[in-house]
Amino acid sequence: MTTSFVHGQKGDKMGELKPCPFCGSEHVVCTKPTTWQVWCTDCKCIGPWKTEREDAIEAWNKRVGEQDD
Ligand SMILES: [Zn+2]
């Protein structure tokens, strides 16, 4: 297990975000254009939009977990 991921370049705390479930990229960021969303800067996939940042992160990580076999 690796816990030394370096996430994001937007000044946010990214350590809690899992890598992209689609391309495996660790370049995953959480931003808030209108509502919070977690997205991959490499393949541009977007997680569920949430009004709370924690919810967006939780939804992203849950999505990753569901893909895990
Ligand atoms: Zn990706």
Descriptive notes:
The protein is α+β, with helices and mostly antiparallel strands and 69 residues long. It has one domain (1-69). The chain has one helix at residues 53-67; strands at residues 28-31, 37-40. It has a two-stranded antiparallel sheet with strand order 1-2. Strand 1 and strand 2 form a beta hairpin. The longest helix is centred in the C-terminal third of the chain and has 15 residues, at 53-67. 17% of the residues are buried. Residues 1-11 have low confidence and may be disordered. It binds zinc ion. The site of zinc ion (ZN) has 8 residues, from loops.
Secondary structure layout plus pairing:
Layout (H helix, E strand, L loop, with lengths): L27 E4 L5 E4 L12 H15 L2
Antiparallel strand pairs: 1-2
Helical content band? 10-25%
**Structural class of the secondary elements?**
alpha+beta
Mean pLDDT: 80
Biggest sheet character = 2 strands, antiparallel
**Would you identify the regions where 5 or more consecutive residues have pLDDT less than 50?**
1-11
| Quantity of strands, as a count | 2
Number of helices: 1
Order of helices and strands: EEH
- What overall form do the CA principal axes indicate? globular
Small-molecule binders here are: zinc ion
Radius of gyration: 11 Å
Strand content: 5-15%
Oligomer: single chain
First-to-last CA distance: 16 Å
Number of domains: 1
Q: Largest sheet, order of strands side by side?
A: 1-2
